[in-house]
């Protein structure tokens, strides 16, 4: 439960600046950075739309993970996002060179949460128990 909550809050700290248009660390405009990466490195069409999806996944999805709501599907989407980031940044492993250690660990944690679920203190568990009582 604590791992899921901390993981979700950490994601929120990356999504919220994109959604609010505020700076994040050394990035004055993290949304523009995401659009640039998607457009010029991944060469995907509709980069602003993809970047908005990433921002919502990290912002709202991170909050949902912290609360344990829709835990498995959100964690699976985050796993895919982090694997994509590893692909873009890889194969560099050195921290100093914007290596993939952090997104690799995030992918592993997200996959772990997707496979294990939110745990007994997750809203998912509470909702499931409430629905079971109604039947």
Give a quick precis of the structure.
With about 140 residues, this protein is an all-alpha fold.
SSE map:
Blueprint lengths: L1 H19 L9 H12 L5 H21 L3 H19 L11 H16 L6 H12 L1
Q: How would you portray this structure in words?
A:
Keywords: Cell membrane, Membrane, Transmembrane, Transmembrane helix. This is DoxX family protein. InterPro entries: DoxX, DoxX-like_oxidoreductase. The protein has six helices and no strands. The chain has 135 residues and is mainly alpha-helical. The two termini are 27 Å apart. The mean pLDDT is 91.
Number of helices: 6
What characteristic shape results from the CA principal axes? Answer: globular
Overall pLDDT level: 91
* Strand/helix succession: HHHHHH
First and last CA, distance: 27 Å
Give the tally of structural domains.
1
List keywords for this structure.
135 residues; mainly alpha
